[in-house]
Amino acid sequence: MSRTTFRNRVLGIGATAAALALGYFGVQYFGRNTLFPIAAAVGGAGAISYVLQKSSEPQAPSSQPEPQPTPMKTQRKRNKL
User: Fold this and answer.
1) Taken in order 32, 34, 37, 41, is the CA torsion positive or negative?
2) Is 27 exposed, middle or buried (CB count within 10 Å of its CB: 0-12, 13-18, 19+)?
3) Residue 37: what pLDDT?
4) Tell me, what's the pLDDT at 36?
5) Which residues of the chain, if any, have pLDDT below 50?
6) What pLDDT is attached to residue 5?
7) Nearest to 41 by CA among 26, 56, 55
8) Euclidean distance between CA atoms 80 and 6, whole angstroms
9) pLDDT value, residue 80
10) Helices (DSSP H) in 1-80: which residue ranges?
């Protein structure tokens, strides 16, 4: 396992534990009904950042040519005798 992968895993686990702790203590302090919109906003921000990061990554050109689409065979109607 590379050093970067290990660091990212540790940071991810730590961030998850921190989010759970903040959610638990936030409910105690703010109440359940206030934490629902906060959780939805954080989840939406995470989804938006994921999509933006995914689209900004440069894609490596493929060394293999793209496969040609296979022609579709059509069935012929038989003449009834």
Assistant:
1) negative
2) middle
3) 83
4) 82
5) none
6) 82
7) 26
8) 70
9) 67
10) 3-30, 32-56
Largest Cα–Cα separation, the chain: 84
Angle CA(50)–CA(9)–CA(43) in degrees, nearest 5? 30
CA distances to 9, 10, 39, 66, 75 from 5, in Å:
6, 9, 27, 32, 53
Indicate the SS3 state at residue 57.
coil
Using an 8 Å Cβ cutoff, are 38 and 26 in contact?
A: yes
What pLDDT does residue 16 have?
83
The token duo for 81 is 């005798």
Please give the torsion angle defined by the CA atoms of residues 6, 9, 13 and 19, in that order, rounded to the nearest 10 degrees: 130
Supply the pLDDT for residue 61: 62
Helix axes 32-56, 3-30, angle to 10 degrees: 160
